[in-house]
Amino acid sequence: MQQVVLLVVGGMHPPSYTGQILSTIARDEVLGQLRRVVCAPQRSGDVLSAYALRQALDKAEKASLPEPELGLLIWAFSAGCVGAAALAAHWQQGRGPVLALFMVDGWGVPRPPGVPVHRLSHDRFTHDSSRWLGAGDEDFYADPAVPHLHLWQQPQTTNGWATAGRDRESLTAADFLCRRSRDHLCRYGLNINGP
């Protein structure tokens, strides 16, 4: 069966700001079993480059057995959404399926064509104003609003609403990321436990 990698792309901030996101993944009963979680890149300016992100994935793949077609799940934050969106479009065309791209406060970044997308926003204004660049299949916004960095640094304490059309569900940003990621893994029937 196909394998999947979860790529975590922070913004232009110190790598330590991504600690709670990685803890969220590790605590989840399904995502915590993923054999391949890649946190990239190490230099903050590289988050803008799909090429740099692809190199980070290729480097991680060299450390394990290469897969002919590797499914990709992406969690990206702020400026990291620029490189992640470009990588998702490239990956979908030639490397394998992109299960979903989660753009966390990726305001101003257009939705890549043909890729399942979820937008997470730190407030209702950002949520509403991002929609003209392509709403996600199901999105999240913090309510009450939180500072921009708080959404990435403290997703487990960021309450808000998951929205799909007119439907809304109250949950935390961490729950939204994990639940929707699990949904995409199940939908594609990927083998996340490995051989």
Write a concise keyword list for the protein shown above.
alpha/beta, 8 strands, globular, 195 residues, Rossmann fold
How would you describe this protein?
By secondary structure, the chain is of the alpha/beta class. It has one domain (3-188): Alpha/Beta hydrolase fold, catalytic domain (Rossmann fold), CATH 3.40.50. The chain is 34% helix and 24% strand. The protein is built from six helices and eight strands; from the N terminus they run E-H-E-H-E-H-E-E-H-E-H-E-E-H. The chain has helices spanning 19-27, 50-62, 80-94, 124-130, 148-153, 173-188; strands at 3-9, 37-39, 70-77, 98-104, 117-121, 139-142, 159-164, 167-172. Strand 1, helix 1 (19-27) and strand 2 (37-39) form a beta-alpha-beta unit. The radius of gyration is 15 Å and the shape is globular. The chain starts with a strand and ends in a 7-residue tail after the last helix.
